[in-house]
Amino acid sequence: MKCFQENAPKLPSVSVSPSAEIMEGSSVTLTCSSDANPAANYTWYKRNGNPALQSLSNESQLIFSSIQSSDSGLYYCTVENVLGKRTSGDFGIDVKYAPKLPSVSVSPSAEIMEGSSVTLTCSSDANPAATYTWYKENEDSPLHSGQIFTMTDFRAEHSGNYYCVAQNTRGRHNSTLYLTTAGKTALIPNVIRLTLVVLSLIPLLLLIVWMRKKMSSSHEAESNEVVEMIEMQ
After folding, report:
1. Residue 223's beta-bridge partner residues?
2. How many C-alpha atoms does 183 have within 13 Å on its Cβ side?
3. Can you give the CATH number for the domain in which 151 is found?
4. Which residues contact 7 (CB under 8 A, 6 or more apart)?
5. Residue 3: inside a domain, yes or no?
6. C-alpha separations of 198 from 85, 189, 201 in Å
7. Is residue 6 a contact partner of residue 37, using CB atoms and an 8 Å limit?
8. Where does a domain end: 96, 112, 130?
9. How far apart are CA 146 and CA 121, in angstroms?
C-alpha cells in the first residue's frame, strides 16, 4: 500500500487563459494551483486597498464570462487545508478597450465674440490611451492633432460643426460640437433691451408726476377753503 504524506499547501501559482491580450467582452479564466494533502480549499480576492475584502470565488478557477474594463486590477488566491494556509502573489489583469464616447468642452463657454480665441478640449476613456484628431464637418483634412485645439481670431465664417476623433489600436469614437460667433451685431440686442427697460419706466415716472400734482392741487384747495372760512368768521 502507498502511504501519502500529509502536507500544508505549497505556494500557489496563478495562470490566465487566454494568455494573450485581454479584450473587453471576452471570456477570461484565472486558475489557482497548489500541491496540498489533504486537498486544499481555494478563495479568490481582488486587491483594492480594503482590509475587509470580499471573496470573489471559492473555486480553484475565477471565471469572467464577459470581462469589463472595471475588472482590471490585481487578483490573488489563498489555499488552505487543515495543516496550513498560503497566499499567492498578485496577478494583474489589464483589460484593453476602444475609446468610449468622447466628451468635448469649449472655452469660453459664453457667447463667442468675433475675433476672440476659442479652445476646444476632447477627452475619452480608453486603454491603451487614445490619440485625438480634430476635423470640421464636410472637410476631409484634419485641423489639428492633440487633445486640445485652440483657434485664434474666430470669425463668422468659422462657424460650423467641429468634431474630434478618439482612436487607439482597439477602435475609434467621435463626438461633435457646434460653434458659432455672436459677431459684432451682438451689441444691437443689448441696445434694444436697454431701450425697452427705459420705455417701461416712462409710464411709472408719469404716474408719479401726476400723483404729485394731484396731491399739490388737493392741498391748495384745502388751504383756500380755510382762508374763506376765516374771512367769513
Report:
1. none
2. 8
3. 2.60.40.10
4. 35, 36, 37, 83
5. no
6. 85, 14, 5
7. yes
8. 96
9. 9
| First-last CA distance in the chain | 150
Reported as a single tens digit per residue, the pLDDT across 174-211 is: 999 888 877 554 444 554 566 666 677 787 777 887 78
pTM (2 decimals)? 0.67
Closest CA to 173 of 136, 123, 139, 137: 123
What is the β-pairing status of strands 160-168 and 131-136?
antiparallel
Reading the block at residue 91, the C-alpha cell is 496577478
Q: Which residue is it, cell 473555486?
A: 59
Outline where the chain has alpha helix (H): 187-232
Q: How many domains does the chain have?
A: 2
Q: Which domain holds residue 169?
A: 103-184
Distance separating alpha carbons of residues 61 and 220, to the nearest angstrom: 105
| 227 lies in some domain | no
